[in-house]
Structures are given as C-alpha cells and as structure tokens.
C-alpha cells in the first residue's frame, strides 16, 4: 500500500459514504474476474465460455455487475456537481466535466495509444492476420464501451440532476417507461434502429437511481430487489429476451447491445440487493485496515480494468510460447488450469498497473484560459470523446492499415478516426475550463 493511499485513508471525513467506494472496487473486480473466466482461448481463436456451456449463463445474473457501477456513478456525480456548484460562481458545467474526467480519460487514452502502437507494429510486420492475433486486437478494446457510456452519464448529469430534484422517482419512471416503449417498438412493431435509444435510456435510468440514493430516497431496497428480479425473470421466461445478461456471439437478441428492459430490471434487483447490504458493509469498512485496502484499490481500479484483458492475453501467449498445450475450453483439463491462469493474470495485471497507474493519479492540470464558451466547448469535447471511444470499442485495432470500419449510430467509423475523435475531444474538454484544484465528494 502506498503512503498516499494510507494518508488518504487516515484523512477520510467521518461523513464519507465508504460503502460507495467498496461498490466501485467490487463491481470492477467482478467484471475483471468475469472476463477472465468467459474468455475461452484455443488454437482456433478466442471464444466465449458461456456460449460453449449455455447452462452457465445464469451466472450472469450475478456477474453482470455493471449496473452497480453506473448506480455508484450517479451517486458520486450528484454529490460532486452539488459540491462544485456551491463553491463556484457562474456556470459550472465545463469545470464539472473537466474535473470528473481527469482520472478517467488520461489512463484510457494512454491505453489506446499504447495498444495502437502495438497494433500498428504487428500489422507492419505482417503478423496481423493470424487467427489469435486478429482476435486479440479486436477483443482488447471491447471493454471501452463501458467508458464511452460512462462519459455520457457524466455529460447528462447536470440536466438530469435538475430533473431529479424536481421530480424524484418520477424522473426515473419516465426513463424506465421510455426504455420499455423502445422495446415495444422494437419487438412488437419492428421499428428499425429504435433499439439504439436504449443505450442512453437504460443506463441513464440506472444512473438516476444513484441520484435517489444520494438523497436517501431508496427506502425499501428489499421491495426494489424483489420487483426487479421478478420482472427480469418474467421478461426472460415469456418475452423475447435471452437468459444471459451479457452479449453472446451470434445471438439474434442481446440484453446488452443494445440494452433491453430485461437488463434494466436486472439492474433494479442488483441495486436493491447492494442496498440491503449497506449497513453491515459500512460497519465493516470502519476497520482501519479494511478501509485502507479499499482506498488503495480505488486508486488503481480504472488502470486495472483497462489492462486486465491485456494481462489475460499475455498469459495465454506465454503458454503458447512455452509450447504448453491449450486444453479445449470447458473440458476438465481447462477447468483445472483456471486457478493458475487467474493467479498469473492477476500478477501480470499488477505489473501493468505498476507501469501505468501514474496516469490515473490526480494532478493539477496545466493552466487554461477561462472561457465564456466553456460549456459548449466542453459539451462538444465530451461528445467527441464518447463517440471516439465507443467507435474504437466496435472497430478494434485489427484494421488500422486496411480501413476496416464499424457502424456507429448509422455512420461508418474507422479505428484511426475514432482515436482522432477521442484525442480531439479530450483536448477540448481540457481547454474548456480553467485548471483549478477541486476536491470532489464521492
């Protein structure tokens, strides 16, 4: 544990909601473990364990934990925006975006640039067309979808927080109802492309639950969990929704891409469940050693998330380089290797975190001129960032030299164009507001 993490733990205000920090770390850790488990690598390529063993898809009702992260994000964004608004004269939108994105975009863009350089070198050397290499260059950027969606949550926080303050639960109900309507238009009436609206509606609805928690308005978590779980089960049993709460290769309908009403109900049950555990978990977090561990983990969680697939691919590459056989996925030999692969991937992730964690560490930015147009500039910047990062999650890095493209909101985008949008957007966000030291709550 670093001295800075120890100092932060010791300086924690008495009124800080420590449980939120635990949920943030636990949700990202669960995602990492789930990705390591689901990746079924063999000599034929990279498959999905849940597709090979469909009975295991029920595990996604616990392992698909991303709704908890967006719920925590809503809580943190509400507290942070209100704290900044109390301290700042005039518009705060640009300052809020810049402050919230400091520790998110810097490590993300470093990850993108490092992997883009590796991908370019591999393709210039003529090795980009191999089955495993090509699959790896596609796979490694897929988790970036989460960061793109999270950027949208940050961008929409100010207007949706105002809506929440006026309407409370009705604001959440409006978003949930709109998501349900989208599914009706999609499945019952066959309206084309309408399903993509749920990328915003479903995740914004979960994010809105975080606002409700910030104001202490989730008072019946058991009822929320029961309603969410029952609704999700009924939708899967009698509706057009698959069992898995993560995407499966080749499936006609996914609960994730784009999100569905079933995934929103899944998020409701998860939020209710974690709220039920809040009181005992908060008491546990009062232990100094436990809290120091959570603070230290929070300081490197995003870096670990970005690089965990790189570590997993590195473990498989080492097996191949050493001439070790890769057992067929889901066989007894494959399961026997799972603990060893997990330990090796965790160790390699630790090495990568040690190399790149400095880009996640908070630091005062370079001075930037104050602008009357800071809000519009910041809005344009974050829009370019989220489009670029979402585009890169779809294109992968396997086609840097051949113009490979993917469709993003009905428009084709290539990996170089996506990288350029993300970098340009980050520059605009950085220049949209004066650099200042802002202590953000949550």
Write up what this structure looks like.
- The chain crosses the membrane at residues 21-41, 61-84, 104-124, 144-161, 168-187, 193-211, 223-241, 261-278, 290-318, 338-356, 377-401, 407-429.
- The chain is mainly alpha-helical and 442 residues long.
- It has 18 helices and four strands.
- The chain has a two-stranded antiparallel ribbon.
- Helix 9 (169-188) packs antiparallel against helix 10.
- The longest helix is centred in the N-terminal third of the chain and has 32 residues, at 93-124.
- The protein is globular and about 60 Å long.
- The relative contact order is 0.16.
- Mean pLDDT is 87; it is low at 365-372 and 436-442.
Topology:
Elements: H1 3-10, H2 18-38, E1 39-42, E2 45-48, H3 49-52, H4 60-63, H5 66-87, H6 93-124, H7 131-139, H8 144-167, H9 169-188, H10 198-214, H11 221-238, H12 261-276, H13 278-285, H14 288-298, H15 301-321, H16 332-356, H17 374-395, E3 405-408, E4 411-414, H18 415-431
Antiparallel strand pairs: 1-2, 3-4
Helix pairs in contact: 1-14, 2-5, 2-14, 2-15, 5-8, 5-10, 5-12, 6-8, 6-15, 6-17, 6-18, 8-9, 8-10, 8-17, 9-10, 10-12, 11-12, 15-16, 17-18
């Amino acid at each position: 544990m670093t001295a800075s993490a120890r100092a932060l733990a010791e300086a924690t205000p008495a009124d800080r909601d420590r449980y939120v920090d635990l949920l943030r770390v636990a949700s990202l850790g669960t995602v990492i473990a789930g990705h390591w488990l689901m990746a079924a690598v063999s000599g034929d390529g990279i498959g999905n364990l849940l597709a090979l063993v469909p009975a295991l898809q029920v595990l996604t009702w616990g392992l698909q934990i991303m709704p908890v992260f967006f719920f925590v994000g809503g809580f943190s964004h509400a507290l942070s925006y209100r704290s900044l608004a109390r301290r700042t004269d005039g518009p705060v939108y640009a300052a809020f975006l810049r402050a919230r994105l400091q520790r998110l975009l810097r490590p993300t863009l470093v990850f993108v640039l490092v992997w883009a350089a590796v991908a370019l070198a591999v393709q210039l050397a003529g090795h980009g067309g191999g089955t495993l290499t090509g699959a790896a260059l596609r796979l490694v950027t897929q988790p970036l979808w989460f960061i793109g969606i999270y950027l949208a949550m940050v961008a929409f926080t100010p207007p949706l927080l105002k809506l929440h303050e006026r309407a409370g639960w009705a604001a959440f109900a409006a978003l949930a109802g709109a998501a349900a309507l989208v599914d009706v238009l999609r499945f019952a009436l066959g309206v084309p492309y309408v399903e993509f609206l749920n990328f915003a509606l479903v995740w914004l609805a979960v994010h809105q639950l975080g606002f409700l928690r910030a104001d202490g308005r989730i008072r019946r978590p058991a009822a929320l969990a029961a309603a969410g779980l029952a609704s999700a089960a009924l939708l899967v049993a009698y509706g057009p929704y698959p069992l898995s709460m993560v995407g499966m290769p080749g499936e006609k309908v996914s609960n994730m891409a784009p999100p569905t009403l079933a995934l929103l109900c899944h998020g409701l049950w998860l939020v209710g469940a974690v709220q039920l555990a809040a009181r005992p978990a908060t008491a546990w977090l009062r232990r100094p050693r436990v809290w120091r561990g959570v603070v230290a983990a929070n300081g490197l969680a995003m870096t670990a998330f970005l690089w965990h697939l790189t570590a997993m691919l590195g473990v498989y590459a080492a097996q191949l380089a050493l001439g070790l056989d890769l057992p067929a996925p889901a066989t007894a030999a494959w399961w026997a290797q799972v603990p060893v692969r997990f330990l090796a991937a965790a160790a390699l992730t630790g090495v990568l975190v040690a190399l790149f964690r400095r880009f996640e560490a908070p630091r005062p930015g370079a001075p930037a001129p104050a602008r009357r147009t800071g809000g519009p500039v910041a809005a344009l910047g974050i829009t370019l960032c989220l489009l670029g990062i979402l585009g890169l999650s779809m294109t992968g890095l396997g086609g840097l030299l051949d113009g490979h493209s993917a469709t993003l909101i009905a428009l084709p985008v290539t990996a170089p164009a996506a990288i350029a949008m993300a970098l340009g957007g980050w520059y605009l966000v950085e220049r949209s507001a004066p650099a200042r030291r802002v202590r953000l709550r949550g």
